[in-house]
Specification:
Layout: E1 4-8, E2 11-14, H1 15-32, H2 38-55, H3 59-81, H4 98-122, H5 128-146, H6 152-169, H7 173-200
Antiparallel strand pairs: 1-2
Helix pairs in contact: 1-2, 1-7, 2-3, 3-5, 4-5, 5-6, 6-7
């Protein structure tokens, strides 16, 4: 899987990165359309990215993709059987309160600071702060997505934008392209889920 599949912007792209790329794009398309296939695709692509990012010394990214893989089963369960109230109605895209938004932002900041400290103290990461910021945001975004909160999409917009710069710095050009695509798809997902919620209200 680490053999070179092709070159992109002068940098070698392994089969590992290429396959993970395809599965990740398929996963986000499924999430925009609320397909349960989102979660098995997330599990497989995330396992592949754990391998890729560990090899690239992006330990925070490796950690968050391990989290994606492990949380995939929970997200899968939530989208199949989860509900918000006593009606037992299936989860549908919903807004969160201003208080919840503040708590999400606080959790992201605290998580990023803690991870930056751990990465700079215990690993040979050369991008500890940026890696930590993206990693903490990805934790937050995954939890919001699993519960079908619309706020997951603006979180992913910020995470994906920061990730593009990080992967360009690491010369992971195909993965940088992936995150540019994911950024566009997050904007699309945000608009679509807002429209769904507006029609339901």
């Amino acid at each position: 899987m680490q053999e070179t599949a092709f070159h992109f912007f002068g940098a070698p792209v392994s089969w590992l990165e290429a396959v993970a790329f395809v599965l990740a794009v398929a996963m986000v398309v499924c999430s925009v359309y609320e397909r349960v296939a989102t979660w098995p695709l997330a599990i497989v692509s995330s396992v592949l990215y754990v391998w890729l990012f560990f090899e690239s010394k992006l330990y925070g990214e490796a950690l968050v993709n391990l989290f994606f893989a492990l949380s995939g089963a929970w997200g899968w369960f939530q989208w199949r059987f989860g509900h918000r109230d006593q009606s037992r109605a299936p989860l549908r895209p919903a807004q969160i309160s201003a208080r919840s938004i503040a708590l999400v932002a606080l959790a992201w900041c605290v998580g990023a600071l803690a991870l930056a400290f751990l990465l700079s103290r215990f690993t040979d990461s050369t991008t500890a702060s940026a890696d930590a910021f993206v990693t903490a945001g990805s934790f937050v975004g995954t939890l919001l997505l699993a519960r079908k909160y619309i706020a997951n999409w603006p979180v992913w917009i910020v995470v994906n934008a920061a990730s593009i710069a990080l992967f360009v710095y690491k010369s992971l050009w195909l993965t940088a392209l992936l995150y540019a695509i994911l950024l566009t798809m997050a904007i699309w997902g945000w608009r679509r889920w807002q429209s769904i919620a507006a029609r339901a209200s």
